[in-house]
Design a protein that fits this description.
By secondary structure, the chain is an alpha/beta fold. Helix content is 28%, strand content 12%. The protein has three helices and five strands. A hairpin with a 2-residue loop joins strand 4 and strand 5. The longest helix is centred in the C-terminal third of the chain and has 19 residues. Keywords: Oxidoreductase. It comes from Geodia barretti (Barrett's horny sponge).
Length: 120
């Protein structure tokens, strides 16, 4: 659905928030428009393919955020997600570093032992 032409037809500086499936966005085209600065940001909750390989181009793509896919999680788990996000935003707004336990990917590399293949 979101191929190169559609992404470039979006208003310059727009944000794309994908809460559907990662596959609806052309992976390489998204990287191109993000690196060109056409879109201001991308947010999604699902990679394509999933699990994403170590060399997935979105890992180094500028101005994007990936969140956990929460459909089917308990209300307790969703509360923990919300509390963690609040802590991250509070730190960011205060100009303080985000707790390393919340960093999953940093500079294109897995930063959290919880998500490292060596720990799975």
């Amino acid at each position: 659905m979101f191929d190169r032409d559609l992404l470039y037809s979006m208003k310059k500086g727009a944000y794309l928030v994908n809460t559907a499936r990662g596959r609806i966005v052309d992976t390489d085209a998204l990287v191109e428009v993000m690196e060109a600065g056409h879109l201001a940001g991308y947010a999604g909750d699902v990679w394509y393919p999933q699990p994403a390989p170590a060399d997935h181009p979105w890992r180094n793509m500028p101005n994007h955020a990936m969140t956990p896919h929460v459909s089917g999680t308990t209300l307790e788990a969703q509360r923990r997600y919300a509390n963690g996000i609040r802590e991250c935003l509070t730190s960011f707004i205060a100009g303080e570093p985000i707790d390393r336990d919340y960093i999953i990917v940093d500079g294109g590399r897995v930063a959290s032992p919880s998500y490292s293949p060596a720990y799975q």
